[in-house]
Structure formats: structure tokens, C-alpha cells
Design a protein that fits this description.
It is a single chain. The chain is an alpha+beta fold. It has a single domain, classed as Nuclear Transport Factor 2, Chain: A. 57% of the residues lie in helices and 20% in strands. A 5-stranded antiparallel sheet has the order 1-2-3-4-5. The longest helix is centred in the C-terminal third of the chain and has 24 residues. It starts with a helix and ends with a helix.
Length: 189
Amino acid sequence: MKKLSIILLIFILLTPVTFANTITQNPVQAIQSAIVKFNKLTMATYSPQTASLLVDKEIAPLFDFDYIAKEVLLAINTHFGADEAAFFSNKLKNNITTTLLTKLGQTHSTTLRFISARPVINNNIIVRLQVGGYYSFGFYIDLLFHQSQNGKWQIFDIVLNNDSLINYYQKMVLIQVKRHGIYGMLDRI
């Protein structure tokens, strides 16, 4: 009896750890969490400082900014060192989060409603959301999720009106490199 209670105690102690590890790798949980966090930002009234803190703590971790930076830099066919790549990734993170904060925080009646999710190549998932509150019929955005190198499901691209975030920044990087060179682009992006 004593052995059985020890085995049950060990099983109970180890089960939450295993369950917690599967939650971080589940794409359904990541998608649901992303929708809830985006809606949390758009539905409530926050001071600018609180909204900025919310974006930094809850919205920014939903994105894989290092992957986005690598994809954007493919347009100029240049390999940066670790410091320059981290700097570029941080600049993109600041630009994207500032834009999200500005656009999603403009109106407090905006809601994101789940429409569909479908798998695509390379085990990625496209999630279509309807954004209500801007127009009477709303519009659609696609969030592209992938499993990042750390095992978490994160957003690596957003598509709005058939124009993706990565494509937009690739075009911006090309323009800035042509005008100012590679290091000039890093200052201006």
C-alpha cells in the first residue's frame, strides 16, 4: 500500500509538468490565446502607458520577430552578424508593435472574430479573422503561425488585403538600401 501511494504521489507531481509542456506546443491554444489577447487590447480603454505595457508583455511575445527579420532580409541577400541581426529584429519589433498599438487601439469597438484555420506547407497554420468595428461589414486578416525554434507557436506574418507584413518590410528594406545603403537602412527602417 505504501508503494502504491508513493507511485501515485510521484504520478500526481509529474503530471502537471508534462501537461504544462504540451500546452506551450499546442497550436490551438496558441491561436486562442492570440485572439483573446488581441481582443483584450481592442475592447478596453487603456491609458497609453498601460496599452504599451500590454503590447510589450502580451502581444509582442505572440510574434517570432527573429524569423520575420530573417525573411525580410532575404530581399537584400545580405547576411548580418549576430549584433546587427538582433538590432534589425528589435527595430522591426518596435515598428510592428507601435503600428499594432496605434491601429488596434484607435477604436474601442473593434473585435476580432475567428473565421477559419487551415494548415499550409511546412506545418504552418493560417488563421483567418474578421475585424469588425471599422466598417459595417468588417474586413479579414490572416495570421500565419509556425512553430518557432524554441517550440512555441508564434505569428510570423500577417496578411491584409493580400499584402503580407513580410512583403511590406521587404519592399521598405529594398527602397532604403537603394537610397541609403545597408547601414543607412538600419537607421531608417
